[in-house]
Amino acid sequence: MATSFSPTNLTTTVSLHGSQESRISLPIRLSPPSSFLGSTISLSVNSPRKLNASRRSPIVGVQEIVKQKKPTNSLLITKEEGLVLYEDMILGRSFEDMCAQMYYRGKMFGFVHLYNGQEAVSTGFIKLLTKTDSVVSTYRDHVHALSKGVSARAVMSELFGKVTGCCRGQGGSMHMFSKEHNMLGGFAFIGEGIPVATGAAFTSKYKRDVLKQNCEDVTVAFFGDGTCNNGQFYECLNMAALYKLPIIFVVENNLWAIGMSHLRSTSDPEIWKKGPAFGMPGVHVDGMDVLKVREVAKEAVTRARRGEGPTLVECETYRFRGHSLADPDELRDAAEKAKYAARDPITALKKYLTENKLANEAELKSIEKKIDELVEEAVEFADASPQPGRSQLLENVFADPKGFGIGPDGKYRCEDPKFTEGTAQV
Amino acid sequence: MSAILQGAGAATSLSPFNSIDSNKLVPPSRSSLSVRSKRYIVAESNVIKSFGSGLITRRSKPLIANAVATKRENAASSTSSKPGHELLLFEALQEGLEEEMDRDPHVCVMGEDVGHYGGSYKVTKGLADKFGDLRVLDTPICENAFTGMGIGAAMTGLRPVIEGMNMGFLLLAFNQISNNCGMLHYTSGGQFTIPVVIRGPGGVGRQLGAEHSQRLESYFQSIPGIQMVACSTPYNAKGLMKAAIRSENPVILFEHVLLYNLKESIPDEEYICNLEEAEMVRPGEHITILTYSRMRYHVMQAAKTLVNKGYDPEVIDIRSLKPFDLYTIGNSVKKTHRVLIVEECMRTGGIGASLTAAINENFHDYLDAPVMCLSSQDVPTPYAGTLEEWTVVQPAQIVTAVEHLCQ
């Protein structure tokens, strides 16, 4: 079943009142999950969950609004927008492929998690954000950083562990930070970034309500399906809805947490339903289709900017590679992989652009060539960059280094008469 | 009155001296340095080059009448000449917090019951009325998430003060404190600062039970990137609170449940205390006693007894638990050559253990006796009053230890 990009088939209706009409069927394995481990509810569409009547809130499912709003022309994007999206996704894909090559050549080490196949989610959301909006991600963060604007050179250098990396080589693959582009990381433990994202959204609200600045910044938090069983996720859903923070929680549901299938680990595998439980809209969208993701993202971001609070968006997506470059990826069914490979977001967007005469083959090819050169140049730059020196080891442990006991001459300060000169400037 | 001790002898000779009780001192030799029995090495040949002359003058020190430092000595760094105002420790914390919130609109407070309830120990009383519900945020009970929220807010420009209703509850936030608070400045290559203050009452209270009587200083001390301070008087509580808020580092401020009602007169004008500085509570000559938080008061109580017995202890409130103020401590050790650490932390891996290691490493040559550390027992604090009393260090034990060390 190829995805179609026509606007009428944009999204499925997801209402808050429990019943589900046409749902995209979950790509379940052919055998139902065992009754002991994993979901005990049947995954068929015919089990409506009626919400408590008193919970009926005026929040309408985001997709309902989107569905009603049929664009006057049948196209969702303009040519410029289309090319931007295409370029971003090609950049993500080429970069990750190059990472794999470099890893196997011994240029980078440790845990490297690649984003192949999920580009639609990153591009769909982040290309709608401004420079001052914040993005928080997980360990699968290379492409989020690239979409947000961090240069390929900086990310590649960081992966190589060089001084010119975005975090001076101190963070690595799982910690991509950029103050300039408001990329707030890169976190190695799952769920750890969600409270940080909540904090960034809190700052936006604080700036608007307390400091009376004109702040419309939103925060987008990306995380996976495995994270949705973690306490921090729920605690933050609660606080975000309670304080009406301008944040969008994006679940990149690629169905697998290393080797643990989402269905085996979650009692109710439909994550979007957890949004209404906390008083925010929960939306499910096809994460292999960048245009659908973009439409949902537009609505969610607008909601947040208007001050109406958070949204939970579940993107059904898939990673073409293993969990990390060390994962042999033997557990996933070949049929499942083939099914999703046929829904490759880049191929789909290319088809849309060419079919709707927004771009021709030559233009797309030239974009691909440009990106190839960019990525190659990034590798050369990273190769040529110096490794961090010894003196960098103890730098930046403390923002205010007087507190560390190491004096400016690099020696331990116990004999330094000026040691107790105060920290704070009075 | 034979209560005069002599410290390490001159560099060249071993002079005979009067000791207090029976003369247990043996002429030391270099080999007996390794024998740590009840007899302590008092003189070492040619170890200390320049201290010979200074020590002999101790022989005729008069008895010190005043064991407890007077208020003027206590507020040593205070430069006020007019009388200040008297208040309790929690009011001092509140005053510090309020002044900082007035001064910088980016300072905000987050925690459970800090807003409308005024704080479970009244530290944030009245602040929500003055600054509003967003600046003094009542959070739901989710320590991990609201600590993380504070850290995210700090990364993006605010200066939150995160209150744990009890320090023990911050165990639930350990993920955020260890992984994000301590690490993000380094991992981001210095791009983001986390100017957060995490504070709350801890320590052993009055029969509060095991979980509410935890001494968590040791759990946090290994986290790289975190600064820790412990306040003990209204003066330094306000000063440290203000310094912690102004610092760009993440600071954990340890308060003690039983010290909230201490009354003291503090200066009217604005002041801050250095975060890394230790406080000289009572200068002395015979032994250095290092302590912090509530144990300071046990030590001062023991000091009264000790002075009556003729000892002259130097009491230092280390205040800064990470990093240690090895400058003040070092100078003291060089003067007295004996160290006793009194703390409420657990014996295993506690602050005292770290401090012992640091002193041994840096000042080994200046020590006449092994560093002795009195910590509380490695038990979960029992509920029963008698058992709880025996868990922490009591003044009588301190007196015994000092007598032991100063033989």
From TrEMBL, chain A:
It catalyses: N(6)-[(R)-lipoyl]-L-lysyl-[protein] + pyruvate + H(+) = N(6)-[(R)-S(8)-acetyldihydrolipoyl]-L-lysyl-[protein] + CO2. GO terms for molecular function: pyruvate dehydrogenase (acetyl-transferring) activity. Tetramer of 2 alpha and 2 beta subunits. Its EC number is 1.2.4.1. InterPro entries: DH_E1 (IPR001017), PDH_E1_Alpha_Subunit (IPR050642), Pyrv_DH_E1_asu_subgrp-y (IPR017597), THDP-binding (IPR029061). Its cofactor is thiamine diphosphate. The pyruvate dehydrogenase complex catalyzes the overall conversion of pyruvate to acetyl-CoA and CO(2). It contains multiple copies of three enzymatic components: pyruvate dehydrogenase (E1), dihydrolipoamide acetyltransferase (E2) and lipoamide dehydrogenase (E3). It comes from the Eukaryota. This is Pyruvate dehydrogenase E1 component subunit alpha. Keywords: Coiled coil, Oxidoreductase, Pyruvate, Thiamine pyrophosphate. Transmembrane segments: none annotated. Residues 357-384 form a coiled coil. GO terms for biological process: pyruvate decarboxylation to acetyl-CoA. It is an enzyme of class 1 (oxidoreductase). SUPFAM superfamilies: Thiamin diphosphate-binding fold (THDP-binding).
TrEMBL record, chain B:
Its EC number is 1.2.4.1. InterPro entries: THDP-binding, Transketo_C/PFOR_II, Transketolase-like_Pyr-bd, Transketolase_C. Gene3D superfamilies: 3.40.50.920, 3.40.50.970. SUPFAM superfamilies: Thiamin diphosphate-binding fold (THDP-binding), TK C-terminal domain-like. Keywords: Chloroplast, Metal-binding, Oxidoreductase, Plastid, Potassium, Pyruvate, Thiamine pyrophosphate, Transit peptide. Its main location: plastid. It is found in: Plastid, Chloroplast. Residues 87-262 form the Transketolase-like pyrimidine-binding domain. It is an enzyme of class 1 (oxidoreductase). GO terms for cellular component: chloroplast. Its cofactor is thiamine diphosphate. It catalyses: N(6)-[(R)-lipoyl]-L-lysyl-[protein] + pyruvate + H(+) = N(6)-[(R)-S(8)-acetyldihydrolipoyl]-L-lysyl-[protein] + CO2. CDD domains: TPP_PYR_E1-PDHc-beta_like. GO terms for molecular function: metal ion binding; pyruvate dehydrogenase (acetyl-transferring) activity. One of its GO terms (biological process) is pollen tube development. Pfam families: Transket_pyr, Transketolase_C. The keyword Metal-binding applies. The pyruvate dehydrogenase complex catalyzes the overall conversion of pyruvate to acetyl-CoA and CO(2). It contains multiple copies of three enzymatic components: pyruvate dehydrogenase (E1), dihydrolipoamide acetyltransferase (E2) and lipoamide dehydrogenase (E3). Tetramer of 2 alpha and 2 beta subunits. This is pyruvate dehydrogenase (acetyl-transferring). The lineage of its organism: Eukaryota, Viridiplantae, Streptophyta, Embryophyta, Tracheophyta.
